[in-house]
Design goal:
Number of helices: 11
Number of domains: 2
CATH topology of the largest domain: Rossmann fold
Strand order of the largest sheet: 2-1-3-4-5
CATH class of the largest domain: Alpha Beta
Order of helices and strands: HEHEHEHEHEHHHHHH
Largest sheet: 5 strands, parallel
Shape: globular
Helix content: 40-55%
Oligomer: single chain
CATH architecture of the largest domain: 3-Layer(aba) Sandwich
Distance between the termini: 38 Å
């Protein structure tokens, strides 16, 4: 089996975080039909989510924002700070305009509203489970307003032309396999380029690649 095929069939472990038990049950039922996902745990608060991440080390946390005590935004920030491979997908009732920028700043790898969960959750989990970033349709314009004026840290001069191509396609949401097909290189080579880019730019999370691409003009509003 090819590496790309193995990546498509690998089971992604999930932690569901929401203070409404019935909603967690509904999401779990939705995902039971998908062999690629394994719900390994649940949590009803941000503090509990952090403890469960330490215990279970899930691949992806599906995180609500509005919870009593430690909310989802703070929990996301603290989970990102743990340094694990665990990614966070925000699933919330709040519109992107209100929270998209703060959750990306906190280290989340994706944002999805609950109103579109039945349609987009599976695809979002596939993307985030691959270690990539899932953004809603209008995310580019929202993030562009936030990051276009920032000018700190290493710039494009640090990257080769091929690294800039990989960075741009990553920020646009293409998978390693899709980037490899576009650039006629292997998915493993794409991953190597991405790791090198993050090292050169001093980035710790792949979501930060999107911010950098917006800030430097590699990714533009369309």
């Amino acid at each position: 089996m090819s590496p790309a095929r193995r990546a498509e069939t690998t089971t992604t472990s999930l932690l569901l975080v929401d203070d409404h038990a019935m909603f967690r049950a509904g999401i779990k039922a939705l995902l039971e039909a998908e062999d690629r996902f394994d719900v390994v745990g649940e949590a009803a608060s941000g503090e509990e989510a952090i403890d469960r991440v330490r215990e279970l080390r899930p691949d992806v946390v599906v995180m609500d924002l509005s919870m009593p005590g430690t909310n989802g935004l703070e929990a996301t920030r603290r989970i990102a700070a743990l340094g694990y491979e665990t990614r966070v997908l925000i699933l919330t009732v709040h519109a992107e305009e209100e929270y998209l920028v703060p959750v990306i700043d906190a280290g989340a790898s994706g944002y999805l509203t609950k109103s579109s969960a039945d349609r987009d959750l599976v695809e979002a989990l596939k993307v985030v489970g691959r270690g990539e970033v899932f953004l809603p349709p209008h995310a580019t314009s929202l993030l562009l307003k936030r990051y276009r004026t920032e000018d700190d840290g290493p710039g494009l001069k640090e990257l080769s032309s091929r690294e800039q191509e990989v960075l741009t396609l990553t920020a646009e949401g293409f998978s390693s396999r899709e980037i490899g097909e576009k650039l006629f290189i292997s998915p493993k080579t794409v991953d190597t380029y991405r790791s090198r880019i993050m090292e050169k730019l001093g980035l710790n999370h792949r979501s930060e690649l999107v911010k950098f691409a917006l800030k430097t003009g590699l990714l533009r509003d369309v």
